[in-house]
Amino acid sequence: MAMNDSVNILNSAYLAVEYIDSFLPDNPLQQPFKNAWNYMLDNYTKFQIATWGSLIVHEAAYFLLCVPGFVFQFIPYMQKYKIQQDKPETWEKQWKCFKTLLFNHFFIQLPLICGTYYFTEYFNIPYEWEEMPRWYILVAQCFGCAVIEDAWHYFLHRLLHHKRIYKYIHKVHHEFVSPFGMQAEYAHPLETLILGTGFFIGIVVFCNHVILLWAWVICRLMETIDVHSGYDVPLNPLHLVPFYAGARFHDFHHMNFIGNYASTFTWWDRIFGTDSQFIAYKEKEKKQQLITKKKAN
């Protein structure tokens, strides 16, 4: 009975979104995107699209999304939004991070990306424009992928903090007490494989078109670079996502090393109480701000 109710709710939600979508104006970018997509299908093989297309999407999205945080360090006005203001970025740290990233991207992640074509063939995942899901389906699928990845990340990330194995694997990622955007994928190769597995579970569950692979890559990179940015910028659109953790939540994890293990959402830390130190820290900050205001007045 409960299952039927859930299905009915989902169907109703789908019909409601579809109805609203029918009133929205046509996307002016849809036709150029369609032309570009069909041009790609006509001029490249599925192997080339799945392999090199996925690599280009990952590299372009990663480093473009890192640009704002990188630029912030040169803008004095933005320093008031930096979470750990006593720990500025240095060229030495950023160069070290960049070199490790290149190694991980091309010697760890690229071999995995090379399996994308065989994955799409095995599961008969389409590439054609006509098979591409509507934008709201894509958004829902990416959210579903995020929920699955977040659960995987919470439990495996917490395991990597176990005192018997922390120093062998996850300690690499924690070399930077004050994180910055580019450091999001700075990790031991084994960690890249262990935590990265969570990224693929949602793809296996939801993927009905190759576009989801790329959309989910962009969404996941957007989230992880944001929470590692080191800046809590107001009017961040990601803060509109329900239960979104954000930069301040994850920054505390790098500063404290214990707690706040989830990647995207706050619910697992709340359920298991691993956000207790963060909550206490926020309460302490509020009290200090009130004392400062009283002294100023």
Automatic annotation (TrEMBL):
GO terms for molecular function: iron ion binding; oxidoreductase activity. Pfam families: FA_hydroxylase. The chain crosses the membrane at residues 60-79, 100-120, 135-156, 192-217. The keyword Transmembrane applies. It comes from the Eukaryota. The keyword Acyltransferase does not apply. Keywords: Membrane, Transmembrane, Transmembrane helix. One of its GO terms (biological process) is lipid biosynthetic process. GO terms for cellular component: membrane. Its main location: membrane. It is found in: Membrane. Signal peptide: none annotated. Residues 144-274 form the Fatty acid hydroxylase domain. This is Methylsterol monooxygenase 1. It comes from Bubo bubo. The lineage of its organism: Eukaryota, Metazoa, Chordata, Craniata, Vertebrata.
